[in-house]
Amino acid sequence: MKNPTEETVATMHVLNKNKRIVTPHFLELAAQSEEGLLYYAPQLCEEGVNGTYFLQNKNGNKIAVFKPEDEEGNSDSNPKKEISADLAGCNAGSDSISKKISADSDAEGSPSSLSPPVLQHGVYSGEQATREVAAYLLDRDHFYGVPPTGLVEVAYSGFTSGQPLVHSPEAGRSQRLRKKGGSLQAFVENDGSAEDVGFNAFPTREVHKIGVLDVQIVNTDRHEGNILYKKNKDGSRRLIPIDHGYSLPHTLDSAWFGWLTWPQAKNPFDDEVREYIQRIDIEKDAKMLEKLGISADSVRNMKVSTTLLKKAAAKNLTLYDVGALICRVVGQNEPSEMEVLVKHAEEACESRFGVPRTTRLDAGDQPSQAAAPMEQTEEQEVFFAALEPLLDNKIEEILQKKARAIESQRGPGKHNLSLLRDLNAVEDACCNIKALTPRVPRRTSSRTMMAPIKIAV
Ligand SMILES: Nc1ncnc2c1ncn2[C@@H]1O[C@H](COP(=O)(O)OP(=O)(O)O)[C@@H](O)[C@H]1O
Ligand SMILES: [Mg+2]
Fold first, then answer.
1. Does ligand 1 have an atom closer than 6 angstroms to the CB of 96?
2. Domain limits at 347?
3. Rounded distance, CA 8 to CA 457, Å?
4. pLDDT band at residue 171 under the 50/70/90 scheme
């Protein structure tokens, strides 16, 4: 172990310990990181598009990943701002993917930075840290394997941006530290990312776990670089989902599931995954997200996609079927099928309440449009009462398409419709691949990725 320096390198404490939700796993990680910072400075990670720092324990082992709120996305403090801006510019599709808003907007409380918050992939700069924590807390029973995550504040003299340097009593005579809030996540030992080995190496169950998480949080950034893997003793590979800052978006136009083109997504869910999906308690999760400070529109989007997932899984549809309803077709600036259904349900709300106020489909909405809590609840009830039959009809439509596909392959009367495994295999054979933009650079760790290709059946 290295000798402690005469003066403290950096300090850390858990943010809003009483108000925020923290788990024992996370507190243990925070305690070790705090201790390690007395000896080792945060190290800026070269990969990724945001400011990400590795923290060590007192023995010098990498144990945590700190992502400051003010170094996210297009903020002036992001040390990789140029890469982040380039990748934002590469996004095809929605015109609201990257949008500046005025400083007095109703974003969830972005930290002050020189530039106004920017909406990227449906999330404002400064909001990612809370979403990292949300993804961890939604991982009930650690089913998905999101590493323990929470919110902390780190004070370090080596940060080149952020709040003005201040003298700190812990820091000794001449040391001045800059404070930054952000997410702290356990560093997971891994053998690389999915980019390094290709999707064929992964068991279906592992892919499904990641996919179910992504649907639940409406992930807008699930590319291969954000899936780490670790080889088990028997040679199989476990997947570790990371980087959930661009999830729980305010808008539904940016969902991005890199696994949509992977064959595992078309395999049926096994019993364990299916049971997990049915155990998800949407209302409980919604309350937890609200407590964490996630906005009403983002919570509603989680509820929409999770409702769809539960209904689809109950009817033996696949992860692919669900993902294809949620994602837009690459290269087409058209709403996804789920967006269209949501729009219809909103219209039902509109006819009862006037302009919908619980959603913010456009970044220009004003805080004055927010409804009172009682009204919001009633509005949501009307919205979901309108949405659910639309989702049921869509699922029925997909089942019928699959039945027709199998019929055209085998001839009428020669199939058993309950054999969805067969149906999906046939669907593979007769699918019409719309590879409109086969490869686009995206917000990866400075590499490129395969864009999701929507397959029409
Ligand atoms: N929990 C983790 N365990 C191990 N490595 C991690 C973890 N989180 C991030 N990393 C590493 O840091 C890199 C950047 O982190 P990421 O969360 O993807 O940031 P960005 O938002 O900049 O893309 C990742 O590509 C990965 O190599
Ligand atoms: Mg990343």
1. no
2. 192-456
3. 61
4. low
